[in-house]
Please model this.
Amino acid sequence: MSDNSAQNYWKANIKIVLSLLSVWFFISFGCGILFVDALDTIQFGGFKFGFWIAQQGSIFVFVALILIYIRLMDKLDDSYNQKSSQVSSTETAGESE
Amino acid sequence: MSVQIWTYVFVFLTFSLYIGIAIWSRASSTKEFYVAGGNVPPLANGMATAADWMSAASFISMAGLISFLGRDGAFYLMGWTGGYVLLALLLAPYLRKFGKFTVPDFIGDRYYSRPARLIAVFCAIVISFVYVCGQMQGAGIVFSRFLEVDITVGVVIGMAIVFFYAVLGGMKGITYTQVAQYCVLIFAFMVPAIFISIQMTGQAIPQIGFGSELLDGSGYLLDRLDGLSQELGFPTYTDGHRSTQDVFFITAALMFGTAGLPHVIIRFFTVPNVRDARKSAGYALVFIAILYTTAPAVAAFAKTNLINTVNNIEYTAMPEWFSKWETTNLISFDDKNGDGRIQYVGDPDTNELEVNRDIMVLANPEIAGLPNWVVALVAAGALAAALSTAAGLLLVISTSVAHDFLKRSFMPDITEKQELRYARISIFIAVLVAGYFGINPPAYVAQVVAFAFGLAAASFFPAIVMGIFNKRMNKEGAIAGMLAGFGFTAMYIIYFRFINPAADNAEGWWFGISPEGIGTLGTMANLAVAYTVSKFTDEPPAEVQKIVENIRLPGES
Model:
């Protein structure tokens, strides 16, 4: 495998992780803690919105984040494995499982 | 049938199941003993991880704590699930790619140093022991209340079961019993929650019932709870009462701590490859979220029910569960004004009822008057939660001793057979010590648990993350960072909890951060020290940098 495609893979990986973690931070520390009182002025159903984010909504978002991460990384791995097997024909299919 | 007979039936059935699985999945090699042969399917590993990680604290204590904390209780909910996002995105796939057995393995190899490995062994053992004691105490409460046996007998039964399948099956036995235990515990948690949700709001899904109107026509559940709380002088349920920075720091400390817990991390060594490690982290959080989104609903239901059942009612009219919990000293009534009625109010001078937070989940089905078999089910679920976590922790202790301490540090020449024997002996000793502390719990267990999270947050989490994401990080930096983070966190907690408890309040704390939240600053201290020290010392050898490059790429390890 070429160093170049390895570097690109790692950069793309970091980008995925950072963008998902910024959502993670915004929802939990942002909406669930820092802006919770402001969001509490919004009522939805029997919940104050900030209270709901803090006690339930954030957890649903966390689940979604991990599921998105799995999808994006599987895709990234596939394209990396394809490229690296094109670059060097000695690379066997064992990489892609 | 009475609650007690139902409990015996459920406990007997579930325990036979665990033993059956243990016999079926005996471990014959160290690889099977440490990582279940490395071929656990991701779905099974997801369930096992969920059971491993949801302890007696999640099952028994958390909803109770939330029902007394109100909105601030969110730091448990977000902290313990949000940390999972960090674990899945920053640690699990890379550690699986690294492909060894334990967390000290990673620290020792990545930082090419025996002292680093030994510091990691020390941290892993301390964290796990503190945790195990809590689990055994939880099991003791359940046994003594529901089976009405002595706590000692209860703990001994629990230890014998864990010992049996952990020693026989190692990680393999533990994994498949944890799959069964997850099913037991989630069923036991959800059935009463669904019953109560239907009873109070007519909604079968507790997460929706949480935000619905009560059937008795008194409006939304949460509004009613806020109203009741105000009437009786309790803090409003849906408002925050702790300072924002304290909630912020506690949440962060629980998140970093969760991501650094060794017994959870090692679960990702048991799947076949990196892709499966990611997948099983996803499954695990889904399984965990089922309980964690139900818990706040249970908290609100239980608090409302408790107030309605006891307040201003005659003591002699209390149902049977009340007196049973009184005998365990977890509920106490003191008729201060002598009118024979229970006044349950916020003002400590006139309040007559003390309720231990730990019993809210266990007593909840009885308070709601649910059928006996549901009450008994909760006991079996609580035991499953306590035992599954205890087994995972004991395995960490045993691998740390046999693999990292003996084989990798001091006795490299022992054969696999000998190593396996040492692993079994150390589980045996660990079970005995944990059993002792379960029977004679140190008075400060609850406080020491905060210590475990702070410790994991300030030691393992930064060291592992930097080991993966900073190729330049060397052994000097990592060791200095772990010592600084660990030392700072430990001193802060010891100072406020043991040396000067009088100052343990918002005025005494630094920046208003309670000892529960100090692990966050410990993590920052670790990162800062490690980074600075690594700048002034030599970069790691080429082969170590090769390891880092390798774990960053996909494919087989």
Observations:
- Residues 108 and 114 of chain B are 6 Å apart (CA to CA).
- The radius of gyration of chain B is 24 Å.
